[in-house]
Amino acid sequence: MPRFSGVSLLVLGMVVGSGGGYWYARQPASTSMPSTGSNAASAVERKILYYRDPSGAPYWSATPKRDANGRDYLPVYEDEEPAFGPGGELKRPASPKSGSRKVLYYRNPMGLPDTSPVPKKDWMGMDYMPVYEGEEQQEGNTIKVSLEKIQRSGVRTEVVEARSIIESVRAVGTVRHDESRLTIVTMRSDAYIEELFVNKTGEHVHAGDPLFRAYSPEIVTVQVDVRNGGSEQRLRNLGVPENQIREVRAGKNPLSLVWPAPASGDVIEKRVINGQRVKAGDELYRIADHSRVWIIADVAESDLPAIKVGTRATVTVRAYMAQPVEGQVTLIYPELKTETRTARVRIEVPNPDGRLKIDMYADVVFQTGEASPVVAVPTSAVIDSGQRQVVLVAKGERRFEPRPVKVGRRATAMLRCLKDCARAKK
User: Fold this and answer.
1) What is the rounded distance in angstroms from the CA atom of residue 387 to the CA atom of residue 393?
2) Is residue 233 part of a domain?
3) Which helix (H) or strand (E) holds 117?
4) The pTM is what?
5) pLDDT 10s digits, 181-198
6) Residue 312 in contact with residue 326, Cβ under 8 Å?
7) Which CATH number characterizes residue 230's domain?
8) How big, in percent rounded to 5, are the helix, strand and coil portions of the chain?
9) Are residues 301 and 338 in the same domain?
């Protein structure tokens, strides 16, 4: 695939004001002072483009000013404007030409095959570029921009290089139970509840802790059969705990049994009270293990292509803004909410201290993008007409060549160049 390699592009967006500006180029250590005496009148008539640092440092100002040592910034006149090479290096200014140059015609500023005998603007409002006598043999798709216009527009060049495209997708979410860590407590026979050991919703239990004591006529009948030589498997089929089966094996026939908690967690539902008659299959308790929870995030439809299973995410609940939690995407739900045009994305996060509470609101940042470096340019370097994208390749001597490109993923400050990025001439 063709790509840019070591190419300087024109980048928009850095305006030079009274506070000075910065260019990625070196300045000469000294410059000639403006002429005095008999030449003072001609010096006054010369147009000042800007003022530069007297030490040659890369600082400029649109108005007169002084440096930190009190020295005046030096004026740079129109006929003294410097030129820059392909790599941004400064070249010595050419001697001013005597006489006016003849304009042959005006050509499209974007390098399109369109010329005009008179000044005009293109559809984006850019002035057509004059082609002077003696310049008609230059490359037809290369434009030349005066230093004054570069300074006024506030542009700079930057080398195209391989960079990592890191993009953040933001969404809001809610803390939910991990459905794989929910447990329902039920009996497999009719029974009567004689005593509750866990009688409040929200209590934390450990696996094996007693939940209640119950009397079941069916279980007592099976115990008698086991004592008379029947199979112990019938008791196991009824869910009778192993410790009670051992008592029956030892010749005992307990009339009631203590039902243990099948898992550790918080009791989130309690549907039984003392003395209640329960039927086989009735839900008595629901226990949730909150050592891990789910974050269900609502992601905009346009952001879905950047997210996949395994994508890392940072979750911050609003109760603990300074304590974000890291997790990863485990599922993108197959349906879309028609009202909001968002999809639900499930993120699993650890919650060992129970800080994350169910139904808490959470801010989610998905870490998406390219893990390996790709050819990229600053977003401001791409001129997008809506139908095509163009970058300007610096050719030196303030000449720039428009190059059509196709862009891929957009990050905060970068654009990835995909196909049709022609290799530039060095």
Assistant:
1) 20
2) yes
3) none
4) 0.55
5) 999 999 999 999 999 999
6) yes
7) 2.40.50
8) 15, 40, 45
9) yes
Domain membership of residue 365 as a residue range: 169-177+291-369
What region does 71 belong to: left with phi over 0, alpha with psi -120 to 50, or beta?
A: beta
Q: Which residues pair with 350 in a beta bridge?
A: 292
Residue from 37, 52, 32 nearest 93 by CA: 32
State whether 242 and 324 are in the same domain. no
Does residue 89 form part of some domain? no
193 with 267, same domain: the answer is yes
Q: Is 368 exposed, middle or buried (0-12, 13-18, 19+ CB in 10 A)?
A: buried
Could you say which of 281, 307, 331 is where a domain stops? 281
**Cα separation of 337 and 322, whole Å?**
31
Compute the half-sphere exposure of residue 278: CA atoms within 13 Å on the CB side of its CA. Answer: 26
| 79 three-state secondary structure | helix
Q: Kindly state the tokens that stand for 89.
A: 């290096």
Give me the phi and psi of 31, to 5 degrees please: -150, 160
> What are the structure tokens assigned to 327, written together?
């997790």
204: its two tokens: 């934390």
* Paired residues of 134 in beta bridges: none
Rounded to 5 degrees, what are φ and ψ at 4? -75, 145
DSSP state of 187: -
* Per-residue pLDDT tens digits for 360-369: 999 999 988 6
Residue 234 covered by a domain: yes
Torsion sign over Cα 315, 320, 324, 326: negative
If one counts the domains in the chain, the total is 2
- For residues 173 and 301, membership in a common domain is answered with yes
One domain, residues 338 and 268: no
Is 236 a member of any domain?
yes
| pLDDT tens profile 222-240 | 999 999 888 999 999 999 9
The closest alpha carbon to 399, from 161, 160, 131, 154, belongs to 131
Ranges of residues in the chain whose predicted pLDDT is under 50:
1-3, 5, 12-43, 83-98, 136-138, 413-426
From CA 107, how far away is CA 140, in angstroms rounded? 9
